[in-house]
Automatic annotation (TrEMBL):
Binding of ATP, residues: 16-23
Gene Ontology biological process terms, A to Z: hydrogen sulfide biosynthetic process; sulfate assimilation via adenylyl sulfate reduction; sulfate assimilation, phosphoadenylyl sulfate reduction by phosphoadenylyl-sulfate reductase (thioredoxin)
Biological role stated in the UniProt entry: Catalyzes the synthesis of activated sulfate.
Family statement drawn from the similarity comment of this UniProt entry: Belongs to the APS kinase family.
Alphabetical keyword list: ATP-binding, Kinase, Nucleotide-binding, Nucleotidyltransferase, Phosphoprotein, Transferase
GO annotation, cellular component aspect: cytoplasm
Protein known as: Adenylyl-sulfate kinase
Reaction catalysed by this enzyme: adenosine 5'-phosphosulfate + ATP = 3'-phosphoadenylyl sulfate + ADP + H(+)
Phosphoprotein recorded as keyword: yes
Source organism (scientific name): Tepidiforma thermophila (strain KCTC 52669 / CGMCC 1.13589 / G233)
Keyword Transferase: yes
Pathway: Sulfur metabolism; hydrogen sulfide biosynthesis; sulfite from sulfate: step 2/3
Length: 191
Protein backbone atom coordinates (compact mmCIF):
# COMPACT_ATOMS: atom_id res chain seq x y z
CA UNK A 1 0.00 0.00 0.00
CA UNK A 2 1.22 3.49 -0.82
CA UNK A 3 2.32 5.53 2.20
CA UNK A 4 0.75 8.94 2.42
CA UNK A 5 1.33 12.01 4.50
CA UNK A 6 -2.39 12.55 4.98
CA UNK A 7 -3.65 12.93 8.49
CA UNK A 8 -6.64 15.23 8.16
CA UNK A 9 -9.83 15.12 6.23
CA UNK A 10 -11.43 18.33 5.09
CA UNK A 11 -14.44 19.60 3.19
CA UNK A 12 -13.94 21.68 0.08
CA UNK A 13 -17.36 23.23 -0.44
CA UNK A 14 -17.96 24.54 -3.97
CA UNK A 15 -20.84 26.93 -4.45
CA UNK A 16 -21.96 28.64 -7.64
CA UNK A 17 -24.59 28.92 -10.32
CA UNK A 18 -25.47 26.11 -12.68
CA UNK A 19 -22.71 26.18 -15.29
CA UNK A 20 -20.19 27.93 -13.05
CA UNK A 21 -17.83 24.93 -13.17
CA UNK A 22 -18.58 22.82 -10.11
CA UNK A 23 -18.61 19.48 -11.92
CA UNK A 24 -15.71 20.35 -14.22
CA UNK A 25 -13.41 21.38 -11.39
CA UNK A 26 -14.46 18.51 -9.15
CA UNK A 27 -13.79 15.96 -11.85
CA UNK A 28 -10.40 17.50 -12.60
CA UNK A 29 -9.33 18.07 -9.00
CA UNK A 30 -10.24 14.69 -7.50
CA UNK A 31 -7.63 12.68 -9.47
CA UNK A 32 -4.94 15.29 -8.72
CA UNK A 33 -5.61 14.91 -5.00
CA UNK A 34 -5.58 11.11 -5.27
CA UNK A 35 -2.19 11.30 -6.99
CA UNK A 36 -0.94 13.11 -3.90
CA UNK A 37 -2.12 10.25 -1.71
CA UNK A 38 -5.44 11.63 -0.45
CA UNK A 39 -8.58 9.54 -0.16
CA UNK A 40 -11.21 11.59 -1.98
CA UNK A 41 -14.99 11.44 -2.16
CA UNK A 42 -17.14 13.73 -4.27
CA UNK A 43 -20.70 14.70 -3.37
CA UNK A 44 -22.04 16.21 -6.57
CA UNK A 45 -25.46 17.88 -6.44
CA UNK A 46 -26.76 16.13 -9.52
CA UNK A 47 -25.64 12.70 -8.32
CA UNK A 48 -26.82 13.24 -4.74
CA UNK A 49 -30.24 14.10 -6.11
CA UNK A 50 -30.50 10.72 -7.84
CA UNK A 51 -29.73 8.83 -4.62
CA UNK A 52 -29.57 10.48 -1.22
CA UNK A 53 -31.95 13.32 -2.12
CA UNK A 54 -34.16 11.51 -4.62
CA UNK A 55 -37.60 13.09 -4.73
CA UNK A 56 -36.52 16.52 -3.51
CA UNK A 57 -37.32 19.54 -5.65
CA UNK A 58 -36.01 23.08 -5.75
CA UNK A 59 -38.11 24.92 -3.17
CA UNK A 60 -36.08 26.64 -0.50
CA UNK A 61 -37.03 23.91 1.96
CA UNK A 62 -36.00 21.10 -0.37
CA UNK A 63 -32.73 22.79 -1.33
CA UNK A 64 -31.94 23.27 2.36
CA UNK A 65 -32.72 19.62 3.11
CA UNK A 66 -30.45 18.60 0.24
CA UNK A 67 -27.59 20.80 1.44
CA UNK A 68 -27.84 19.67 5.05
CA UNK A 69 -27.80 16.02 3.93
CA UNK A 70 -24.68 16.68 1.91
CA UNK A 71 -23.11 18.43 4.91
CA UNK A 72 -23.97 15.47 7.15
CA UNK A 73 -22.38 12.90 4.86
CA UNK A 74 -19.38 15.17 4.23
CA UNK A 75 -18.86 15.43 7.98
CA UNK A 76 -18.97 11.66 8.48
CA UNK A 77 -16.43 11.10 5.73
CA UNK A 78 -14.09 13.97 6.55
CA UNK A 79 -13.81 13.16 10.23
CA UNK A 80 -12.45 9.79 9.11
CA UNK A 81 -9.70 11.34 7.05
CA UNK A 82 -11.41 11.66 3.69
CA UNK A 83 -10.94 14.72 1.50
CA UNK A 84 -14.51 15.61 0.53
CA UNK A 85 -15.45 17.85 -2.37
CA UNK A 86 -19.07 18.99 -2.53
CA UNK A 87 -20.50 20.40 -5.74
CA UNK A 88 -24.03 21.66 -5.21
CA UNK A 89 -25.31 25.14 -6.09
CA UNK A 90 -26.01 25.70 -2.37
CA UNK A 91 -27.64 29.06 -3.06
CA UNK A 92 -28.49 30.17 0.48
CA UNK A 93 -25.85 31.83 2.64
CA UNK A 94 -27.46 30.86 5.93
CA UNK A 95 -27.67 27.21 4.92
CA UNK A 96 -24.01 27.16 3.88
CA UNK A 97 -23.20 28.65 7.27
CA UNK A 98 -25.13 25.83 8.96
CA UNK A 99 -23.11 23.33 6.94
CA UNK A 100 -19.91 25.10 8.00
CA UNK A 101 -20.92 25.05 11.66
CA UNK A 102 -21.81 21.36 11.66
CA UNK A 103 -18.57 20.40 9.97
CA UNK A 104 -16.19 22.64 11.89
CA UNK A 105 -17.84 21.52 15.16
CA UNK A 106 -16.13 18.18 14.47
CA UNK A 107 -12.77 19.90 14.11
CA UNK A 108 -12.89 19.38 10.35
CA UNK A 109 -11.62 22.21 8.13
CA UNK A 110 -14.35 23.68 5.92
CA UNK A 111 -13.18 25.63 2.88
CA UNK A 112 -15.86 27.48 0.98
CA UNK A 113 -14.98 28.11 -2.66
CA UNK A 114 -17.14 30.47 -4.67
CA UNK A 115 -17.14 29.72 -8.39
CA UNK A 116 -17.97 33.25 -9.39
CA UNK A 117 -18.81 33.10 -13.08
CA UNK A 118 -21.47 35.67 -13.93
CA UNK A 119 -25.02 34.69 -14.78
CA UNK A 120 -24.40 35.97 -18.32
CA UNK A 121 -21.46 33.60 -18.73
CA UNK A 122 -23.27 30.62 -17.25
CA UNK A 123 -26.31 31.29 -19.38
CA UNK A 124 -24.21 31.65 -22.53
CA UNK A 125 -22.59 28.29 -21.76
CA UNK A 126 -25.95 26.68 -21.02
CA UNK A 127 -24.19 23.33 -20.65
CA UNK A 128 -27.45 21.40 -20.18
CA UNK A 129 -29.90 23.69 -21.99
CA UNK A 130 -31.66 24.46 -18.71
CA UNK A 131 -31.29 28.26 -18.87
CA UNK A 132 -33.13 28.29 -22.19
CA UNK A 133 -35.89 26.22 -20.61
CA UNK A 134 -36.01 28.56 -17.62
CA UNK A 135 -36.22 31.67 -19.84
CA UNK A 136 -39.02 30.01 -21.79
CA UNK A 137 -40.92 29.52 -18.53
CA UNK A 138 -40.68 25.75 -18.66
CA UNK A 139 -38.47 25.51 -15.57
CA UNK A 140 -39.78 27.87 -12.92
CA UNK A 141 -37.64 28.60 -9.89
CA UNK A 142 -34.32 28.29 -11.69
CA UNK A 143 -31.35 29.64 -9.74
CA UNK A 144 -30.20 33.00 -11.08
CA UNK A 145 -33.28 33.48 -13.27
CA UNK A 146 -36.23 33.56 -10.89
CA UNK A 147 -34.72 31.99 -7.79
CA UNK A 148 -32.02 33.49 -5.57
CA UNK A 149 -28.30 32.91 -5.44
CA UNK A 150 -26.63 34.52 -2.45
CA UNK A 151 -22.88 34.81 -3.06
CA UNK A 152 -20.54 34.15 -0.13
CA UNK A 153 -19.26 37.27 1.58
CA UNK A 154 -16.01 35.80 2.85
CA UNK A 155 -15.24 32.53 1.10
CA UNK A 156 -11.86 30.91 1.69
CA UNK A 157 -11.38 31.23 -2.08
CA UNK A 158 -13.16 32.96 -4.94
CA UNK A 159 -12.47 31.72 -8.45
CA UNK A 160 -13.50 33.74 -11.45
CA UNK A 161 -14.38 30.69 -13.49
CA UNK A 162 -15.88 32.89 -16.20
CA UNK A 163 -12.48 34.33 -17.01
CA UNK A 164 -9.90 31.87 -15.70
CA UNK A 165 -8.99 28.67 -17.48
CA UNK A 166 -9.71 25.35 -15.78
CA UNK A 167 -5.96 24.95 -15.26
CA UNK A 168 -5.70 28.33 -13.51
CA UNK A 169 -8.62 27.46 -11.25
CA UNK A 170 -7.07 24.08 -10.41
CA UNK A 171 -3.74 25.71 -9.58
CA UNK A 172 -5.45 28.12 -7.19
CA UNK A 173 -7.26 25.23 -5.48
CA UNK A 174 -4.02 23.29 -5.06
CA UNK A 175 -2.34 26.41 -3.61
CA UNK A 176 -5.22 26.85 -1.16
CA UNK A 177 -4.93 23.27 0.10
CA UNK A 178 -1.14 23.34 0.26
CA UNK A 179 -1.22 26.66 2.07
CA UNK A 180 -3.52 25.20 4.73
CA UNK A 181 -1.30 22.16 5.18
CA UNK A 182 -4.04 19.87 3.83
CA UNK A 183 -2.16 18.60 0.79
CA UNK A 184 1.33 17.14 0.92
CA UNK A 185 3.70 18.70 -1.62
CA UNK A 186 4.15 16.60 -4.75
CA UNK A 187 7.79 15.99 -3.72
CA UNK A 188 6.67 14.41 -0.41
CA UNK A 189 4.54 11.78 -2.10
CA UNK A 190 6.32 8.60 -3.17
CA UNK A 191 5.58 8.22 -6.89
N1 LIG B 1 -34.85 25.05 -10.57
C1 LIG B 1 -33.57 24.68 -10.62
N2 LIG B 1 -32.61 25.49 -10.12
C2 LIG B 1 -31.32 25.11 -10.19
N3 LIG B 1 -30.87 23.94 -10.73
C3 LIG B 1 -31.83 23.11 -11.24
C4 LIG B 1 -33.19 23.44 -11.23
N4 LIG B 1 -33.88 22.42 -11.80
C5 LIG B 1 -32.98 21.50 -12.17
N5 LIG B 1 -31.74 21.90 -11.84
C6 LIG B 1 -30.55 21.05 -12.03
O1 LIG B 1 -30.18 20.64 -10.71
C7 LIG B 1 -28.83 20.93 -10.44
C8 LIG B 1 -28.70 21.68 -9.10
O2 LIG B 1 -28.89 20.80 -8.03
P1 LIG B 1 -28.21 21.11 -6.64
O3 LIG B 1 -28.49 19.95 -5.77
O4 LIG B 1 -26.79 21.48 -6.86
O5 LIG B 1 -29.04 22.40 -6.16
S1 LIG B 1 -29.18 23.00 -4.68
O6 LIG B 1 -27.81 23.14 -4.13
O7 LIG B 1 -30.00 22.09 -3.87
O8 LIG B 1 -29.85 24.31 -4.85
C9 LIG B 1 -28.32 21.82 -11.54
O9 LIG B 1 -27.09 21.23 -11.89
P2 LIG B 1 -25.74 22.04 -12.09
O10 LIG B 1 -25.86 22.57 -13.47
O11 LIG B 1 -24.69 20.97 -11.99
O12 LIG B 1 -25.58 23.08 -11.06
C10 LIG B 1 -29.35 21.70 -12.65
O13 LIG B 1 -28.88 20.79 -13.60
N1 LIG C 1 -12.14 27.96 -14.93
C1 LIG C 1 -13.15 27.12 -15.22
N2 LIG C 1 -13.59 26.30 -14.25
C2 LIG C 1 -14.62 25.45 -14.51
N3 LIG C 1 -15.26 25.34 -15.70
C3 LIG C 1 -14.87 26.16 -16.70
C4 LIG C 1 -13.80 27.07 -16.50
N4 LIG C 1 -13.62 27.74 -17.65
C5 LIG C 1 -14.53 27.25 -18.52
N5 LIG C 1 -15.28 26.29 -17.97
C6 LIG C 1 -16.38 25.55 -18.66
O1 LIG C 1 -17.63 25.91 -18.01
C7 LIG C 1 -18.55 24.82 -18.03
C8 LIG C 1 -18.97 24.53 -16.58
O2 LIG C 1 -19.94 23.52 -16.56
P1 LIG C 1 -20.16 22.56 -15.33
O3 LIG C 1 -18.84 22.09 -14.79
O4 LIG C 1 -21.14 21.50 -15.75
O5 LIG C 1 -20.83 23.54 -14.27
P2 LIG C 1 -21.74 23.19 -12.97
O6 LIG C 1 -21.36 21.81 -12.51
O7 LIG C 1 -21.42 24.28 -12.00
O8 LIG C 1 -23.16 23.26 -13.47
C9 LIG C 1 -17.83 23.65 -18.68
O9 LIG C 1 -18.20 23.61 -20.04
C10 LIG C 1 -16.33 24.05 -18.54
O10 LIG C 1 -15.52 23.50 -19.56
Amino acid sequence: MMMTGQTHGFVLWFTGLSGSGKSTLTNALAPLLRERGLRVEVLDGDEVRTHLSKGLGFSREDRDTNILRIAYVAKLLARNGVAVITAAISPYRATRERAREQITAEGVPFLEVHLAASLETCEARDVKGLYAEARAGRRPGFTGIDDPYEPPEAPELRLDTGVQSVEESLAALIRLLEGRGLLPAASEVGA
